[in-house]
Amino acid sequence: MRRRILSILAYTGAALTLVVAASVPFVLMGVFSKAIAHAGLHIDAAYSGGTVARTIDRGGYKIVVYQPVKPRLLEPIEPFVQIVFEPADALPARMNEEIDLDGDGQPDVRVSFSLPSDPNAPLRGDVAALNGKYISLTDMGGESFSRMVVRAGKQIVVRIPLNRDSARR
Amino acid sequence: MASPSSALARPPVFRSIGRSILLTLPIALWSLLMFTPSFRSGGRDLAIGAVLVVVFMTSLFFLMMRTGETYRWRRIFFVALGFLFPVGFIASLIAERGTMSIPISRMVSGDTPFCFMVTPALILPAAFARTIVFPGSILPTASNPHSIAVMIGLWFAFTLVLGKAWCSYACFFGGMDEGFAAFGKRRRLHRFVTKYGSILRLIPWAILLCVVLLSAALFEPFYCIWLCPFKTVTEFPAVRDLETALQFGVFVTLFAGLVVVLPYLTKKRTQCGFFCPFGAFQSLFNKINLFDIRFDREKCFDCGLCQTSCPTVALSKESVREGKTLLNCMKCGACVDACKKDAAVWHLKGTPVGVKPERARLLFLYGAWALATMFGGSILANSIATMVHWLPLK
Predict the structure, then answer these.
(1) Would the pLDDT of B3 be above 70?
(2) CA B333 to each of CA B19, B53, B157, B316: distance values in angstroms, whole numbers, following the listed order
(3) pLDDT higher than 50, residue B1
């Protein structure tokens, strides 16, 4: 009797597996994808740049300043702060901006770069730190996750490393 | 190409053509359903790819039904998938960015296509910090349709149906070492593999443990950054310094060793069986899967053919004596096809071993082949479309 019940359960399970297989492209894949999308997860700040602190509107374009990203205990990156200039199409051919990163009303860095007319051409730029909290960068491209001046789609992403002492504070 | 089991296999028992066609009909209809959008709106190249894939997948399933063999026909699909996947993938990279290397700008904008191999490494950071340590996007975007949510959703749905059989019916990498293992007949290093099989099959678990812990500690996808052999034939971080140069060197060395040379020498899927941490992780899902391979002890006379034929050392003398495979069995069917006494059988958990094994095989194969057609088939169709696009047919 037990064997028979087990067999019935097994074949019912096998039939359900077939139903699950048939529903994968139409229902199941979407259900699981939505569940993951709504699980409250976020991409690590080393890749995404972290959370937005504030946006500076310059008329034709915007400068988005992010919260400083501090690495976790063993994470192999330097602390950095990300700035995004967008849209790239609306930027002047030569950018030279002093930007207040910490919101204290005083400029912290001067970012300068020239936009090549070819959007696929590599971008390089300079960052001059105006105080000891940040580290200056010269002729920078996409060297590391903490030091970069790159075009990413319709944005220019600049990452400026923080002085480790000031990052700890 | 010679099968690891071709010299040993029993002669196939043929079903009638009419009955084989009837059994193939559901897969033929499913294939047509899956590829109808490609016929309608995918353009000429994709339509050609879709037609070829429908014929290919349906024909292989027909041959499985006709001959009663699984391994050899599945392997044709799987090797085709393994060798054609990079063709389509690399072509799309070259068309889009002119290089196989992924620049840092693509990573920060979340444009890295998600690969299921990284899934185990994501678990701890996601559980404890709600953070995904991968430079992709969670939701699909115009520039990255292969987002994290889509790919993990797809993988999880497949895993419910296939368990570890993912590694034989869905993985777009496994066909590469299976293909190289199929070249030539001479089985070198056989004694080494037999003697140290019990240790070799533990290596993926050790790598899995290291990858999971290091990914959680370093907050980076450690396997992708340092260990993935398949970066060699897909995309890899642009070489910009000594560290990235070293990473690229490791990828190429592992690919040459584990995917090309060792499979050729041993006739085993060495990357899948002795290295892949995702494969080890996937083994855990065999516990919840309803299908497995069992051994009818009344018929078995311990000839060892099943162990010799197993491409991933998922059988030991002890496990066969207990009538079971080991946890890492990927249900490729090699042992069942190799067994001369029909002692190795497909089995539905909860039913008696050896009673109606063909029914268990059919129930498993319909689900597995349907998903293989949907996922692997669409990859094949896209790759064929790419090749058709290159050919001077216009």
Answers:
(1) no
(2) 22, 22, 22, 16
(3) no
CA distance B332 to B334: 6
Written as one string, the DSSP assignment of A146-160 is SSEEEEETTEEEEEE
Classify burial at B42, counting beta carbons within 10 Å of its beta carbon; exposed 0-12, middle 13-18, buried 19 or more.
Answer: middle
H-helix or E-strand spanning residue B249:
helix B242-254
Average pLDDT over residues B136-162: 88
Burial of B35 (0-12, 13-18, 19+ CB in 10 A): buried
Segments forming the whole domain that contains residue B39: 11-99+357-394
Token pair for A74: 């063993």
Residue A164 has pLDDT above 90, yes or no: no
B274 and B381 belong to one structural domain: no
| Closest chain A CA to residue B348 | A10
Domain total of chain B: 3
A122 or B125, greater pLDDT? B125
Say whether both B263 and B318 belong to one domain. Answer: no
Nearest CA to B134 among B304, B146, B249, B143?
A: B146
Determine, yes or no, domain membership for B64.
Answer: yes
Using CB atoms within 10 Å of the CB of residue A106, give its burial: 0 to 12 exposed, 13 to 18 middle, 19+ buried.
Answer: exposed
Q: Does A2 touch chain B (CB under 8 A)?
A: no
Same domain, B259 and B158: yes
Q: Positive or negative CA dihedral for B191, B196, B198, B203?
A: negative
Contact criterion met (CB < 8 Å) for B366 and A21: yes
Q: So what's the pLDDT on residue A83?
A: 96
A1 touches chain B (CB under 8 A): no
Task: Flag whether residue A93 sits within 8 Å of chain B, measured between CB atoms.
Answer: no
Do B32 and B158 lie in one domain? The reply is no
Tens digits of per-residue pLDDT, A66-81?
999 999 888 889 999 9
Region B8-14 average pLDDT: 62
Q: End of a domain among B245, B260, B288?
A: B288
Find the CB nearest A21 among B133, B219, B367: B367
Going from N- to C-terminal start, the domains of chain A cover 1-41, 50-168
User: For residue B97, what pLDDT is reported?
Assistant: 80
**Using a CB-CB distance cutoff of 8 angstroms, which residues of chain B are in contact with residue A40?**
130
Give tens-digit pLDDT for B350-359.
999 989 999 9
Q: pTM of the predicted model, to two decimals?
A: 0.91
As for the ipTM of the complex, it is: 0.88
Q: How large is the angle between the packed helices B357-390 and B71-97, nearest 10 degrees?
A: 30
Cβ-contact B334, B319 below 8 angstroms: no
